[in-house]
Amino acid sequence: MSKKKLVVLSGAGISAESGLKTFRDSDGLWNGYDVTEVATPGAWKKNAALVLDFYNMRRKEVAAAQPNAAHKGLAALEKDFDVTIITQNIDDLHERGGSTNVLHLHGQIFEMRSEKDPSMIFPITGDMLPGATAPDGALLRPNIVWFEEEVPMIVPAANISADADIFVVVGTSLAVYPAAGLLQYPAMNTPKFILDKNIPFTGNMRNMTPIEGPASEGISTLTALLQSYK
């Protein structure tokens, strides 16, 4: 008997318990700069060195962070379900927590790519330096989907979501599109769960079970509830 397809859309809230700040934390500033000014194509053209400083700092933070109980709890669900994680996060905590099938909507902090050729991707663990170029001669930039850019992985993510037997949303305010729109793709009769410290508004969506609280506690509750869906 094949396992049911469990699709999870995760956001910054799941990594917050590992100590990683979100773009929307506190005053929304980084070193006095609005975060959207270090995470847009315009910012890159205006001050590439500042953008690289920002992502170099974030890369160090991610490398120092550890997966928490929520990441590990989702990985453990692979025992009973065919789990796909669709994450808005650029960290690798899902993978380090044990999940084997992760789709990153907004890119990955440990990758850089050619400015001209999005398919020319390279791993990066240390700092990116201004002026470094890819083999095609173009500048190397973080392999991150910035504000105002298209999200190339949204189409496969939508197809995966539409095929879900169970759909879970964890740690996201559902305020960032097109990612938030993925909630509309599962069939109406598909069981849906939404986990967050502050449950976002989802309208009159059918078969929706809210689980309020931190991600780690929510995943524990979810795991118990999913026993009847195996």
> What name goes with the CATH superfamily?
TPP-binding domain
SSE pattern, N- to C-terminal: EHEEHHHEHEEEEHEEEH
Q: Strands of the largest sheet, in order across it? A: 5-4-1-9-10-11
Query: Helical percent range?
Result: 25-40%
Shape verdict:
elongated
- Percent of residues in β-strands: 15-25%
Report on this structure.
- With 230 residues, the protein is of the alpha/beta class.
- It is 26% helix and 22% strand.
- The protein has a six-stranded parallel sheet with strand order 5-4-1-9-10-11, sandwiched between helices. Strands 7-6-8 form a three-stranded antiparallel sheet, with helices on one face.
- The chain is elongated.
Attribute tags:
230 residues; six-stranded parallel beta sheet; single chain; alpha/beta; Rossmann fold; three-stranded antiparallel beta sheet
Task: Offer a concise description of the structure.
About 25% of the residues lie in helices and about 20% in strands.
Write the layout of secondary structure elements.
Layout: E1 5-10, H1 12-16, E2 29-30, E3 33-34, H2 41-46, H3 48-64, H4 69-76, E4 82-87, H5 93-96, E5 102-104, E6 107-114, E7 121-123, E8 140-144, H6 154-162, E9 166-170, E10 192-196, E11 208-212, H7 215-225
Parallel strand pairs: 1-4, 1-9, 4-5, 9-10, 10-11
Antiparallel strand pairs: 2-3, 6-7, 6-8
